[in-house]
Amino acid sequence: MYGIGLTSPGHQRGAGARRRGISVLTLVGACLISLSVPQAASSEPAAETVDTGFEIPFSGAPGFEHLAPTQLTSPDQLNQPLGQQAADEIAAQIGLDSGDALSEQQYRDLVTGGGVGGSREAAEIIDECARILTNTNGRALYSTNDGNVTSSVLASYGLYVNTSGLLESPANADAPTRQVNSLIAPGGFVGTWMRNNGATQTLAALYQSAYTVQAVYGFASQQISGTAQLVTNTKAGVSSEVGMSMAPPLWIVNFALLYILKPSLAAAMPAQWAPIPSVVADAVKSSPTGQVPFSDYASYFD
């Protein structure tokens, strides 16, 4: 959902500490991350052989690639959420559990502008990021175009429709999931709020999880994906496109962030990814803004 612009607990900013750390600015699902963490905070399990169809850097760290969604195999899987049991199992394999998440009070304060130094404006952006990344069945997004209200559910495609009715990747420069970056930069709102509201243990758990290593792959993925922010998947000789938020490293980073925010949010993330209809993918890639009117392409998602 979003990255937290903080140094990890106990990490000092001296020259020696900087040499031990990594500085990352990456998309999380779709939001950028900016953080500095010690490399030792991330441990990667032995790689499990899996062919997801994504290539480095879009496949992420090999030891975690198998945890990300695979391509759907039946229509009834489209935009289906993970569910809490699957979310908890994935969390355990990336080094998190429900006890690492914000408390219910901390969560409510963060997304309503409460707590010490809370901000309603920042809270709205953070909440919108979470809604975009959990746009699965039962969690529609709504847009208005020419006075017409339209609902959309597109998370499996790694796409969403913004409030003005434009279809885009959550990694698009226009998206709240990118604009949140100013809030999560070091010294920014989110870092200050976390420090002031007793969430240091949550941060420590996050930095010690797969979040850190996957963030590096996510950064590289975003940097080479242009305005459209789509990813090519090729498996068994068949190539297709999907939005950046469904690439394994970014999906896992998003998952980790949503899980520490509130485990039930991570459970609402898409369980499988779906190829974007080729006509739609071509249109998004051809657009100078990476956006197209959803009304022109909605029929391709029926």
Task: Kindly summarize this structure in a few lines.
37% of the residues lie in helices and 16% in strands. With 302 residues, the protein is of the alpha+beta class.
The proportion of residues in beta strands is 15-25%
Q: What structural category do the secondary elements indicate?
A: alpha+beta
Count of discrete alpha- or pi-helical segments spanning 4 or more residues: 14
Helix content: 25-40%
Overall geometric form: globular
* Stretches with pLDDT under 50, minimum 5 residues: 1-43
Q: What's the mean pLDDT score?
A: 84
Order of helices and strands: HEEHEHHHEEEEHHHHHEEHHEHEH
Q: What order do the strands of the largest sheet run in, or round the barrel if closed? A: 6-7-11
Using the CA coordinates, give the radius of gyration: 18 Å
How does the major sheet shape up? 3 strands, antiparallel
Distance between the termini: 27 Å
DSSP summary, beta strand count: 11
Describe this structure in words.
- This protein has 302 residues and is of the alpha+beta class.
- The chain contains 14 helices and 11 strands.
- A hairpin with a 2-residue loop joins strand 4 (141-145) and strand 5.
- Helix 10 packs across helix 11 (248-261).
- The longest helix is centred in the middle third of the chain and has 14 residues, at 120-133.
